[in-house]
Specification:
About 75% of the residues lie in helices and about 0% in strands. It is an all-alpha fold. The longest helix is centred in the middle third of the chain and has 34 residues, at about 25-60. The model has no long low-confidence stretch (mean pLDDT about 95).
Amino acid sequence: MRNLTTSSTVEHAIERLVATGRFSSKDEVIREGVRLLEERERKLEKLDAALSRGIADAEAGRVTPADDVFDRLERKYQSLASK
Protein backbone atom coordinates (compact mmCIF):
# COMPACT_ATOMS: atom_id res chain seq x y z
CA MET A 1 0.00 0.00 0.00
CA ARG A 2 1.71 3.15 -1.16
CA ASN A 3 -0.95 5.81 -0.67
CA LEU A 4 -3.07 6.37 2.37
CA THR A 5 -6.20 8.47 2.44
CA THR A 6 -7.07 9.91 5.84
CA SER A 7 -9.62 12.34 7.20
CA SER A 8 -8.49 15.86 7.93
CA THR A 9 -8.72 15.11 11.65
CA VAL A 10 -6.32 12.19 11.35
CA GLU A 11 -4.03 14.16 9.04
CA HIS A 12 -3.85 17.02 11.55
CA ALA A 13 -3.14 14.61 14.40
CA ILE A 14 -0.30 13.03 12.42
CA GLU A 15 1.13 16.43 11.50
CA ARG A 16 0.90 17.53 15.14
CA LEU A 17 2.84 14.46 16.27
CA VAL A 18 5.57 15.05 13.69
CA ALA A 19 5.72 18.74 14.66
CA THR A 20 6.47 17.82 18.28
CA GLY A 21 9.69 16.21 17.10
CA ARG A 22 8.80 12.91 18.70
CA PHE A 23 8.36 11.38 15.25
CA SER A 24 10.54 12.23 12.29
CA SER A 25 7.94 11.52 9.60
CA LYS A 26 4.31 10.73 8.92
CA ASP A 27 5.36 7.17 8.06
CA GLU A 28 6.91 6.79 11.50
CA VAL A 29 3.64 7.90 13.13
CA ILE A 30 1.67 5.40 11.04
CA ARG A 31 4.13 2.57 11.82
CA GLU A 32 3.82 3.27 15.55
CA GLY A 33 0.03 3.34 15.30
CA VAL A 34 -0.02 0.01 13.47
CA ARG A 35 2.42 -1.49 16.00
CA LEU A 36 0.13 -0.43 18.86
CA LEU A 37 -2.91 -1.85 17.09
CA GLU A 38 -1.13 -5.17 16.54
CA GLU A 39 -0.13 -5.26 20.21
CA ARG A 40 -3.73 -4.60 21.26
CA GLU A 41 -4.98 -7.32 18.92
CA ARG A 42 -2.52 -9.84 20.43
CA LYS A 43 -3.77 -8.98 23.92
CA LEU A 44 -7.40 -9.31 22.81
CA GLU A 45 -6.65 -12.71 21.26
CA LYS A 46 -5.17 -13.88 24.57
CA LEU A 47 -8.19 -12.54 26.44
CA ASP A 48 -10.58 -14.28 24.04
CA ALA A 49 -8.69 -17.56 24.51
CA ALA A 50 -8.83 -17.21 28.31
CA LEU A 51 -12.55 -16.46 28.19
CA SER A 52 -13.16 -19.48 25.97
CA ARG A 53 -11.25 -21.71 28.40
CA GLY A 54 -13.22 -20.29 31.32
CA ILE A 55 -16.54 -20.81 29.59
CA ALA A 56 -15.57 -24.37 28.64
CA ASP A 57 -14.58 -25.07 32.26
CA ALA A 58 -17.87 -23.69 33.54
CA GLU A 59 -19.87 -25.70 31.01
CA ALA A 60 -17.96 -28.85 32.03
CA GLY A 61 -18.69 -28.22 35.70
CA ARG A 62 -15.09 -27.37 36.59
CA VAL A 63 -15.99 -24.50 38.90
CA THR A 64 -15.49 -23.51 42.53
CA PRO A 65 -18.45 -22.08 44.43
CA ALA A 66 -18.02 -18.35 45.07
CA ASP A 67 -18.53 -18.78 48.83
CA ASP A 68 -15.55 -21.17 48.95
CA VAL A 69 -13.37 -18.69 47.08
CA PHE A 70 -14.42 -15.75 49.27
CA ASP A 71 -13.85 -17.77 52.47
CA ARG A 72 -10.35 -18.76 51.29
CA LEU A 73 -9.49 -15.15 50.38
CA GLU A 74 -10.82 -13.85 53.68
CA ARG A 75 -8.67 -16.33 55.63
CA LYS A 76 -5.64 -15.44 53.52
CA TYR A 77 -5.94 -11.69 54.05
CA GLN A 78 -6.79 -12.01 57.73
CA SER A 79 -3.65 -14.07 58.13
CA LEU A 80 -1.58 -11.44 56.31
CA ALA A 81 -3.10 -8.64 58.39
CA SER A 82 -2.24 -10.33 61.66
CA LYS A 83 1.47 -10.62 60.81
